[in-house]
Amino acid sequence: MSRPAPAQSDSAALLDKLRRRVIADDLRGASMIVAFSGGPDSSALLHSLHTLKDELGLELHAAHLDHGLRPDASDADAAFAREFAASLGVPIAVEKADTRAVQAERGLSTEAAARAVRYEFLSRLAAERGADCIALGHTRDDQAETVLLNILRGSGLEGLGAMKELSSKEIGSRRVALFRPMLSVSRDEVLAYCAANNLNPRLDESNLSSEFTRNRVRLDLIPKLQEYNPAIQDALARLARLASLDMDFIHQEVERAAKDTISVEANGVRVQRERFRRLHPAVGHHLLRYAVRLAKGDMDDLELAHVSWMFGMMSGAAGKSLDLPGGLRFEVDYYHARISANAISDSPMPTIYLAPFRIEVPGKTVAGGWEISARLALNDEGFNFGETSDQRLSERFDADALGDAPLVRTRRAGDTFQPLGMKGQKKLKDFMIDARVPRRWRDSVPLVESGGSVAWVVGWRIADWAKVAPDTRRVLEMQFERAPDG
Questions:
Q1: I want to staple 369 with a disulfide (CB 3.0 to 4.6 A). Which of 30, 230, 329, 351 is the partner?
Q2: Torsion 236-242-247-248 (CA) sign
Q3: Is the pLDDT of residue 86 over 60?
């Protein structure tokens, strides 16, 4: 397949954009795996990089994957890919995948399964060739479609940032660099480049199928939006650039916060709840995404709803858990949240109480691994223990109802409890079940007792009879903290 010399008027602008992108991302002299489907975008990408190859010192390897979704056309696509690469003198790897099998095995959509097998193929090839990056032919129009898709899915700022010219992705056990030098190039520019250089790319009829959401966005939604703004693709691409800049700053803040908040463990990561509570909510939400990526290697299938639930649990009661994509479990105890590949079914409570002990009121008591502060005040004085106190472990009581000598113990057979807001008693065991206290914790949860009755299931709820009421004369505020050696 002979290739005539490029028509300068139609090719110079695209070539200049790619040249500037390679230089800006410090990829001169790089070895690249170039994803090549045979369509207009990948044809323009491979041809233009080949044109710049000597000038920029690039080493190119083309890669074509038959997804097994178009049996009538796949052989012709593969033959075209081989011929195109041979005409440029670029080595090419051609393979076939069973996308439908992967779709069924992993429970993915057709689009997601095709993307998964494609990236796994490219990642493996990059490792085998020792390539510096994988070059992909995504254009400005693809960027606009991705932004819209992410908006429709309810994505946050991360989704608005969409694709970046140079990024990295964890694929299997490999982290690979992804290079998208045509994000500032329109689809019309691509088609003009192909026509000017007589490339005659293949046309994928599946791009016209309404089965795929992206196609409906391209064929239906964007034309409607163009009625309001003819330059909607430019506007969406600009939104992506601005969101990406904001995300770069947030990522810096997240990485700074992670040094003091996140610990990597053998089977996952641990997040300190008290330090997390001091973070700005924007940083906190993204820090949880970062923690998932540390535990799992990627954030595939992690949705905004998962992050919102985790964020709420960070300030909620201990003992709650949430299943996350990829077999992860998010679980909170008194002081930490853990994200683990396995349910932490054997995690104990921080302390096992061996014997009851009295609380000094007012004063400070250190026993059983806890440091307990108790203060008294008149009902109309109002006080607290400061901004750093953990509200789950700090409660206020009617001091006269609680008495002068409350004690701390763990549960006993036959214990009953009158939860706040309830008129009658219920078995403590039933309360713990209803409050979803993990079974493995129930024998270790500290209880504050007065006169033989449970006044507080620490970390969960106080008793109705011990609450501060309008006629309360004195208020007792009590706070549990881990003892320095606890």
A1: 351
A2: positive
A3: yes
